[in-house]
Design a protein that fits this description.
7% of the residues lie in helices and 45% in strands. It is mainly beta and 120 residues long. 20% of the residues are buried.
Length: 120
């Protein structure tokens, strides 16, 4: 059985916030893995830097109730520890996925997503 893990390094934050010339050598400061358990798929597809400098990772996660859920985690920029998480399982337990993340002028996270499959 194959487990898919979310693995994120501060390199992602550096890539998002670095606007200068290319860096010759980069050092990994930390990495973070997330395993939703039970050999279910967990994947991170978007990384965004919050106004406070921490990282927000969005993607999807499946669980024992079945189906793919939109899943978001905020990670501490200094050590990768989880600050909070949010899971949305869709209307009528339909599979959902995140398509974009953005921040409004008040520093609030905005998510867009879609229903991956619909029957009936």
């Amino acid at each position: 059985m194959r487990k898919h893990l979310l693995a994120f390094a501060l390199l992602a934050a550096m890539a998002l916030s670095f606007a200068g010339p290319a860096v010759a050598a980069t050092t990994e400061m930390w990495s973070q893995q997330h395993d939703g358990g039970g050999d279910y798929i967990d994947s991170g597809t978007l990384v965004s830097q919050a106004p406070d400098g921490h990282l927000v990772v969005a993607g999807e996660s499946t669980e024992t109730t079945g189906g793919a859920d939109l899943y978001v985690r905020k990670l501490d920029k200094d050590n990768g520890n989880q600050i909070w998480e949010f899971r949305y399982d869709g209307v009528d337990d339909k599979d959902v996925a995140v398509s974009d993340v953005a921040w409004d002028s008040f520093g609030q996270l905005l998510l867009s997503g879609f229903i991956k499959s619909c029957v009936g």
